[in-house]
Structure formats: C-alpha cells, structure tokens
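WARN no homologs supplied; continuing
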Amino acid sequence: MRYSKDESTYILGNFNSGDAITINIYKLSDSSHLVINGSCSEIGTTGVFKYDFSQTIINKTEYLWIMDNGTTDQDRKSVV
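OK structure emitted
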C-alpha cells in the first residue's frame, strides 16, 4: 500500500530460487504497455522476486502485471 504519491510500489511474485524473472506491465484503462521485459530481483534466496514500480501516480489507476520465468507466468491486477 502506498501512503504518498512519491513512494515506490513493489510488485512481488513467487518462483524457484535462482530463476531469471521478467515483468510486463499494462495500464488497464487504455491497454498501454508501460514496462516491457523489466528485470525482477530475488529477495535473498527465498524464491520471492520483486519489481520496483516507481511510476508517479496522481489518480487511482489499475494495472495488469505479468511476471515470467520463461516457462511459467503469474499475473495479477494491482490498483495504485
């Protein structure tokens, strides 16, 4: 949850530790592709990967994000 427009939002996904994870992010209101194959980093060796989505948001906005390790993907909707 963000408390300020200037805070970053971390998007998280669970994969196998050591995987190479990329992310694609779409703005749902106009289907624009904001992030193309962004690189995610693993938190320690937990298998939990994060992406720092540091967009400046003025109004409530819905996004679709898809994390992928080349074999499996995870997708979610986030409201920022």
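The chain has a mean pLDDT of 88.
OK
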